Amino acid sequence: MPDLPYPAGKSSPESNADWRPLLFSCWTEQRDERVTDVLRSVQIEWTVRQVNAAYLSDRIMDVFLKTSGLHRALVSRIARLRFWLAWQLDTRGTNVFSDVVLDWLDNLQEWRGWSDTGGRSSRVLLDQLDSLVIAVSGSFESGQPELVESYCQQWLDDREKGEHQVSRLRERLLETERGASRQRLADQVSRALIGRALTGRELPVVISRFIIEDWYKVLKQSVWSEGTDSELYRHANKLLEWLVWLGDPALSDRDRNRLYHVGEQIGGRIQDVWTRALGQGLPENALADIQTVIVARIRGEVPELKPALGSGTSLTWDSRWLSLASVDPQQAEGFIGRWFVEGEGAAEQRRYLFALLEDSGEVLWTNGAGVKLGLQDWALFLADLEADTLRPLPAPTPFGEVLSETVNLLFKVCEKQQKQREEAAREARARAEALRKEKEAAERARKAEEEAKQAALEQQRAEVERQRQEDEKAEHERLQKERELAAAKQVDSIGLGGWIVLAAQKDDEEPTRLKLAVKISASRKFVFVDRLGLNRREFLHDELVSGVVSGRIRILGSAAEFDDTLSRVVGRIRVGRN
């Protein structure tokens, strides 16, 4: 493996260093270091087997502890077992991973939910790991692995015994909490119904007291026994509303006929619902005071009223229980039986979602061993997940799987290195063959080089000639452009009456002189005539420019200059005649 302290060459067995004292001191001091780093820190030549054992123990423990999901406090302690594993890998090879040791390492997953709370349950595991320190130290001192294997076997035996106890504890906890959840639902719904009905009402004291002390029991039992969707619950809630309606003159005085009808029937209905809910008859004289109030109300009398929820009432309620939404069991199924973590680093706390209490819509948290940690509303649980303050632990990776993957990876590395060595041998043979053929190819290479030089010279000459032609072409185009610009400037300067000369098309013909008669700007057309105003010729601007550049057309000048010249000539002729 690259970057490891392998020896420079083969060493004799007599000179091999004994590294057990070094590893034993690291374990005794409980150092958090990798074995390969420890080997580098001392000036000792280690064997290839020792270096490989150190690397393998580091690799296995690093991958396992990174994917185990255990608490950081546990990871740091178990990771130190790498010193013992390195020693045993060097001494015994793969026999170090006996079935007992592998089972013990795999069963560490049962402590994924362990948190360093400082309580008795968390202290039990730390005490067990303190015993591991003693067992491993004894193994180092005696040179035998049996003490560690005995420790692992004892751990597994204790775990098997504890599983039955934990299983019974979980069953009892679930049964107890489901009953308490239903009781909590019944209690909170009954309180919320009474609180909603009595809030802001002034009623006779006997009715308020009967509702809070007696009818509360009926409401609670109806919810507990048959649920909030039952007929019994609806009847009990309806009678609660009728009792409030009868006792509040502000409500019942508006309909005297209905007051008489309700007052006549409510006693019998209360007795019926009471019997159905509680399984026993209404106590004698329980409604006597209420019947007196009802009779007074029917007569039109107004009894003494007091606030239904006065200062002496200790009733508390939460109206959210009346609109409690049921939890979809399929949605909750993906969370039940999983570990969740809250907090970061050493301060993280882990909780096991043991069950969903459907009656009250609450999550039951435990420590994984059947000990209740608390309850949480399902909506708050989802909110914590959304806010990432509560995170599910990823699925654990068993130690055996980590070991298998690590060995397979190292086997692939070994195969790769073997192929590299074979490839290096083939390359060496190829180089020898290349050296043998090098002399034969030397002459061919020299000739080829000469030919290449000659070809390069020819290519340079051709390139120079091509460049010369391109330069001449560019110069010609530049001059042509300048001539066209000058010609265009001359053409644009011709005014009305300006003269041009057209070159003769044949040798025996005279050049033709024409004068600009019309200049059409829109179409850039020029109309020329001869001296007599005849022989009309038309040219476009571009035709004139092309003719000037080619020499077929010559511009004599503006009309004023030509007229002045003509006048001077005519004047001289006249003077000569005189």
Automatic annotation (TrEMBL):
Residues 441-477 are annotated as: Disordered. Residues 441-453, 460-477 have a biased composition (Basic and acidic residues). InterPro entries: DUF1631. This is DUF1631 family protein. It comes from Marinobacter excellens LAMA 842.
